[in-house]
Amino acid sequence: MFSGIVEGMARVIAIEKEQDNVHLTLTCPFAQELGIDQSVAHNGVCLTVVERKGDTYMVTAMRETLERSNLGLLCIGDEVNVERSMQMNGRLDGHIVQGHVDLTAICIAVEDQQGSYQFTFRYESSPEMVRHGYFTVDKGSVTVNGVSLTVCRPTADTFQVCIIPYTYENTNFHAIQPGTVVNIEFDIIGKYLARMQALL
């Protein structure tokens, strides 16, 4: 379980394919504190630490993860947003994030608003996806590349988020431009409510 409050950025230093799996080796500010079997969100995807050496660690992404997220697009040198699992005695500064990415979206616009940045994203939508809770609501929560954000001006297949300078500089939002593929996790509470409604 995560909160969507990014702790830092990890840099990809090695990528190894093994059958349908991809092993990612990364380095980040808290790498030496990680233990084997620990969960870390990478661009919002919960992955398990399987190896650690010095200031590097390795995680494995399987086919399902690669098909639903942007992790399969990573190259050596890329930065990913990272967050360790939430402590039960801590404050929930973001929102409830599972680390289970639902799908990817494409950035279609970035606007400098003289003090903040407004990003517009488009994602695939259908009545069936809406019934599963894959939609956004105005002032609701959404996770983009692991960052807990508030939705602005949603449509059937787009939404906007506004980013303050701190978030822009300290996450990989500074690298997002039109055409960039990002990971999306919709609000788990909304997904449960949509599922319950579909069963009534």
Strands of the biggest beta sheet: in what spatial order? 1-2-5-4-3-6
- How many alpha or pi helices? 4
Roughly how much helix do the residues carry, as a percent range? Answer: 10-25%
The secondary-structure class comes to: mainly beta
Distance between the termini: 29 Å
Describe this structure as you would to a colleague.
Helix content is 14%, strand content 40%. It has 200 residues and is mainly β. It has helices spanning 63-68, 127-131, 165-170, 188-199, and strands at residues 8-18, 21-27, 39-42, 45-53, 56-61, 79-84, 103-112, 117-123, 141-144, 147-150, 158-163, 181-186. The mean pLDDT is 94. The chain is globular.
Strand and helix layout:
Blueprint: E1 8-18, E2 21-27, E3 39-42, E4 45-53, E5 56-61, H1 63-68, E6 79-84, E7 103-112, E8 117-123, H2 127-131, E9 141-144, E10 147-150, E11 158-163, H3 165-170, E12 181-186, H4 188-199
Antiparallel strand pairs: 1-2, 1-6, 2-5, 3-4, 3-6, 4-5, 7-8, 7-12, 8-11, 9-10, 9-12
